[in-house]
Amino acid sequence: MDLFMGICLLSLFYAFFGICKLVLQRRDQCCYMLAYECYKAPEERKLNTESSAKIVFRNKNLGLEEYRFLLKTIVSSGLGEETYGPPIVFAGREREPTLADAHLEMNEFIYDTLDNLFAKTGVSPSEIDILAVNVSMFSPVPSLTACIINRYKMREDIKAFNLSGMGCSASLVAVDLVQHLFKSYKDSYAVVVSTESMGPHWYCGKEKSMLLSNCLFRSGSCSMLFTNKKALKHRAIMRLKSAVRVDTGSSDEAYGCCMQVEDEHGNLGFRLTKSLTKAAAQAFSMNLRVLVPKVLPLRELLRYFFAAKLQHKTKSPNLKAGVDHFCIHPGGRAVIDGVGKGLGLSDNDLEPARMALHRFGNTSAAGNWYVLGYMEAKKRLKKGDKILMISLGAGFMCNNCVWEVMKDLDDVNVWKDCIDRYPPQCLLNPFKEKYSWINDEYLSFVRLH
User: Fold this and answer.
1) Per-residue CA distances from 312 to 145, 282, 304, 342 (Å)
2) Where are the alpha helices (H) located in 155-260, listed in sequence order?
3) CA-wise closest residue to 319 among 354, 348, 295, 353
4) Other Cβ atoms closer than 10 A to 153
5) Handedness of CA 355, 361, 362, 366 (dihedral sign)
6) What's CA 430's distance to the chain center, in Å?
7) Helices (H), ranges, 82-207
8) What number does CATH give the domain 239-427?
9) Is the fold of 32-237 the same as that of 239-427?
10) First vs last Cα of the chain: how many Å apart?
11) Phi, psi (deg, nearest 5) at residue 394
């Protein structure tokens, strides 16, 4: 009996020791965000109705059918009059981009946000231990991380990662990478830079599935500073609680729904197929199966489980039981509405994503941070709030994460010049009203003159 009691006590001791070790390990695996800085282009690069029309008419490959398609797409896109286009397009040289054009665009986007980030936080570039850059369609040699290291004279032992080809969801890939690196590198700073090369990849052909990208994608960038230094917890604005990544690239249909290709005339562009909606829904569903148990309290999980069993059908769990805000990638109106419908979200929940799409457009991997900036500028983010960040991108990937707000946030950030005007009473695009009368004769006149 004494031997049995001894074994039981020893087992309890090891179990208690194991639990304490696990708790301490998790406490040691923190990932705090100290700040983020989004990019806003100069006013002269606003891609309003008039400038959009000029660019459309400049494409000699388009006929009336393609023009009508563009008109319909622009009207229903959810984009407003104040999004920003790449400099090469405003210069009228989108058909003949150079390597120098790509570098100049990246330098403007990246260095502007990094300069502001270092100035805002007081952290020196020489203190950065980890650097991750994600740009899908431009991967030069030396790499973009090397360009940044050279510009800011960073340390020789910095851990640099250059991510390419991962689409709109790449930013959360980089964040997840930082979170895992923090497990090995203690008391470190990490910088993530998320942007996209727009100008040199402007599509100049007439294939409808490739013209879509010109209607939706706009100039944008964001740089973020993270740390796992516990001494800086009081300075953190958010803490990463969990991250889940899903990649459905093994499916040919999902793999091919977002792809950079050449059309039959050799024009390079980004093709978005009708399979995109289906691929997004499947990847999002797979992600939620893993994420939901990490987010919802036990009582809500049990309620959802028994409700599903009794009704003999699958229904969406009530994520609002564990999440206060939804930061949805502003990929397009259909994407936002689809996620909102699937999760049973209200117009108030979807407002930040819709407004980010309207004001800045689809800024690819940087998009989620413009949505977050809107929430902060509207003073919606309070200490203890949970934010579900949802991102979808080529691959096809769905990368989601949950943040905990560490303090009340009220920085007006990149929204400072317009936040008082949002949300506007009407989101209609005036393109149709101004240009719906155009016919083949007018297009012929434009091309001749």
Assistant:
1) 52, 21, 12, 18
2) 170-181, 208-216, 252-255
3) 295
4) 9
5) negative
6) 27
7) 87-90, 99-121, 144-152, 170-181
8) 3.40.47.10
9) yes
10) 102
11) -55, 145
- Alpha carbons 128 and 123: distance in angstroms, whole number: 8
| Residue 247 C-alpha from the chain's centroid | 16
Residue spans of the domains in the chain: they are 32-237, 239-427
CB atoms within 10 A of CB 15: 10
Half-sphere exposure of 161 (CA within 13 A, CB side): 21
- Residue written as tokens 């990662």? 161
Distance, CA of 128 to CA of 109 (rounded, Å) = 20
Of how many residues is the chain composed? 449
Tokens of 102: 């790509």
Residue 421, amino acid: R
Q: Residue 286 carries which side chain, given as an amino acid letter?
A: M
Structure tokens, 395: 């691959």
pTM value is 0.90
Q: Which CATH number fits domain 32-237: 3.40.47.10, 3.40.50.2300, 3.40.50.300, 3.40.50.1820?
A: 3.40.47.10
CA 268 to chain centre: 23
Structure tokens at 365: 């991997």
d(C-alpha 359, C-alpha 355), whole Å: 6
Residue 305, judged by CB atoms within 10 A of its CB (0-12, 13-18, 19+), counts as exposed
Q: Could you list the beta-strand ranges (E) of 180-237.
A: 189-195, 221-227
Strands 238-247 and 386-393: unpaired
Tokens 């896109």 sit on residue: 77
pLDDT tens for the chain, 449 residues: list them.
454 444 444 445 544 544 544 444 455 579 999 999 999 999 999 998 888 878 887 887 888 788 778 877 887 888 988 999 999 999 989 989 999 999 999 999 999 999 999 999 999 999 999 999 999 999 999 999 999 999 999 999 999 999 999 999 999 999 999 999 999 999 999 999 999 999 999 999 989 889 888 889 999 999 999 999 999 999 999 999 999 999 999 999 999 999 999 999 999 998 998 899 899 999 999 999 999 899 988 888 888 777 666 665 556 778 899 999 999 999 999 889 999 998 999 999 999 999 999 999 999 999 999 999 999 999 999 999 999 999 999 999 999 999 999 999 999 899 999 999 999 877 766 766 666 665 556 556 555 55
